[in-house]
Predict the 3D structure of the following.
Amino acid sequence: MASGGEVKLFGMWASPAVRRVEWALKIKGIEYEYIEEDLSNKSTSLLEYNPINKQVPVLLHKGKPIVESLVMIEYIDEVWNHNPILPEDPYERTKARFWATYSEGKCRDAVGKVYFTEGEEKENAIKYLEDIVRVLDEELKGKRFFGGENIGFSDLVLGWMAFWLPVAEEVASFEVLDSEKFPWFASWTDNFLQVPVIKENLPPRDKTVEFFQNYRQQRLAA
Amino acid sequence: MASGGEVKLFGMWASPAVRRVEWALKIKGIEYEYIEEDLSNKSTSLLEYNPINKQVPVLLHKGKPIVESLVMIEYIDEVWNHNPILPEDPYERTKARFWATYSEGKCRDAVGKVYFTEGEEKENAIKYLEDIVRVLDEELKGKRFFGGENIGFSDLVLGWMAFWLPVAEEVASFEVLDSEKFPWFASWTDNFLQVPVIKENLPPRDKTVEFFQNYRQQRLAA
């Protein structure tokens, strides 16, 4: 294991953005201290290190805080440059970063809309989400992972969809994932979830479903 | 002037995201061909090069398309590494990339909300926007630019606010910019707009106001 100097990660067990950073740390073999936050009663450390967003994850390296999960992954890859996460070629890097933008923009937006709407609005959100999964399916055609034979930045960034999208389907009673309609996306989710570093660093499925069921009910009631 | 190989930029004159890429190209002294798109009748080239988002800007380098303005700036900075745009230090880079996330997330969201709402919803959006300008003002305390004495990535990314936020205020009749309330932000906008490469690459103010007036009316009527 590479020594991480002093690396701490403030997280919350059900958060996809937190897991994504943990996957990156594990790929690099960086030792770190994980601090679970109670988001209904945030620690003074969290508020001190992330005064603008007041959210997890926060990565602390040698006492200096880093905010935003994708920024953390770029940092981790720049500081510990073994087991590279981003491609080396500048043009390939643009593609990886494009998928990062797509994940945090359209994908999150679409899944959020399906989760927290009902009726016609939800039906439209499901169609919007299907269009997005179609784009990903198209991109994955003939490929094991986004980056080719091994997982890379795009996979880590979009990987939340492999685990949290089926959870969302169960919680909000909809179906978008269909291995006949989107075979490449379906096999990517299987491939991704079988990678040891991913498989060993996922939250328990049942507890996650329960967590998002409660969260959805609160949001819909608000 | 550094030769850009074959660099083309598909743009639209009033778009902040397009100008931001032009600023980066000009800082590097890269020669490029600019192609103005009619967004009501997009060219087959644009649709071919950006089939997923179908938007400007698209940067073409040696025939290969790059999408998303921030991804383009990172690419430009990696391929032409003179006149650096991103800081060299990995931790300083995390701060620059944090502001990029903030610009494309909260800042854009807030300005869009003020533009395209009315009544109480607009009042709330103005308060939300004020909170964001306060965050930027705080960050700029004692500094000429986000990066210090010279413009860098954060300035290029957030620079749209220096020109397009006053335009938005005029178009949508609101006032957030206040040099007494936000003195550091106000002096940053002045400093930024006085940098020759920025000053010489802005759209005409009156035409921009007119453009967004029409755009706003269409959106509010839709």
About this structure: Residues 90-115 of chain B form the longest helix (26 residues). Chain B has a mean pLDDT of 95. The radius of gyration of chain B is 17 Å. Chain B has two domains: 7-79, 90-221.
